[in-house]
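Q: For a teaching handout, I want to show students what a protein-ligand complex looks like in token form. Below are the inputs, and the small molecule is 2-oxoglutaric acid. Please produce the holo structure.
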Amino acid sequence: MASDIRNIIDYTRYPISESESPILQEVINRARSELKDNGITLLRGFMLPSAIRQSILDTEEALPIAFRGTVDHSVYLEEGKENSVLEKDHARNILCRSSKCCVAHDQIKTNSPLNQLYMSPEMTEFVRILLHRDVLYRTADPLGALNVHVYRENDQLDWHFDRGKFAVTLLLQAPAGGGCFQYIPSTRSDGSESHDLVREVLLATKAGQDLTALGVKDADLQPGTLVIFCGQNSMHRVSPVEGKKFRILAVLSYEQKADVHLNEYTRMKFYGRLK
Ligand SMILES: O=C(O)CCC(=O)C(=O)O
Ligand SMILES: [Fe+2]
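A: Here is the structure, written as tokens, with 2-oxoglutaric acid included.
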């Protein structure tokens, strides 16, 4: 039985099914203008506290069977060996390390508020409108459509540029320290890869130096914040988690084509299994 979206999101602030609502119109206008100017928009207090609590419980229940992955990668998400044609400290050759647990879509209960939200046509329509797209579909993959990433102490998602044009995430639990989502807006553009800036950020991070002077911004995410981020040209990371409280974040995947499934390589890499 489909649950009412009003029990899951703060419908007073985000009346996502009321296309005529001036409140919704304002939400849409603000999000679109922030995405245009900064490549990121935060919808604070999107999920209700009761739905957050239940989604965390559902995640914790699935955690023992979730896949834990550790990957060495470049900021461009290439894995493995250095490119010997380039200098040793070229941005491409500075290795980053990421580790986290990933709860796959088929491990999230159908009646979990998070899953109910993701599966609701109203939510897909809302995201489509925010992103100004003609069409938008949920990813059809049984593992990859909706994921929950769980970061334990010292886990991080190191610097990278996304392969996809946009990402939709929802923070469920913030850690006691660290675990910050950090990014440099428009680090690179179609005309310039900004290799020097990228290298500086990577080296300063490894040296534990202050990153604000390099243009690194911190997104202030609270539990319940829905984030839309365009990360193809803005390098970003989740800094190492400090303390025993996990960082728990849902990734809601959408595509501009129907019936998109992940390939076998991606399934093995992110879920450790093919089905
Ligand atoms: O966990 C986050 O806040 C960001 C995740 C991210 O950048 C990614 O999955 O590519
Ligand atoms: Fe990313």
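A: Two things your students might notice: The domain at 24-271 is CATH 2.60.120.620 (Jelly Rolls). The first strand starts at residue 40 and ends at 43.
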